[in-house]
Design a protein that fits this description.
There is one protein chain. It contains four helices and seven strands. Strands 1-2-3-4 form a four-stranded antiparallel β-sheet. Strands 5-6-7 form a three-stranded antiparallel β-sheet, covered by helices on one side. The model has no long low-confidence stretch (mean pLDDT about 85).
Amino acid sequence: MAAQKLEVNQQALLLYLRTRYWIAAVLGILMWGAGLLMMLAYLWVKNTYWPRYFERLNYELTEENLVVSRGVYFRRQVTIPLWKVTDVLVMEGPLQRHYGIKSLRVQTAGQGHAMAEGTLLGLADPEAARQLILERMAELKRTSE
């Protein structure tokens, strides 16, 4: 079975990230008066950082692994073996709900902490991605028996 790239809903994710940054900027204006610096930082992030972030954001589901790549200046690639996955959760906070964004959290065995091994933010259809991961896990289990 060939690797399948999971689609990111960039438009909704961009609106979510933009709103999150605007909230931080408004709080900066109200609390510290450093809002001007926050606004300049926002313009830099909007015009420089986010385009590169989306260019390098990649989620790929292979036959045996989930590969998560991201990062602009500090690039990170995490390969999660499907045989180690213990839970796949679809999470949604209030701001995410407003923009139609959900997080897909992949938890694995043997990590020693409650944090997710991989968090996929901004998937176009996280429920379908979750189902696809679960199907691949079941198929991997059947073929290993």
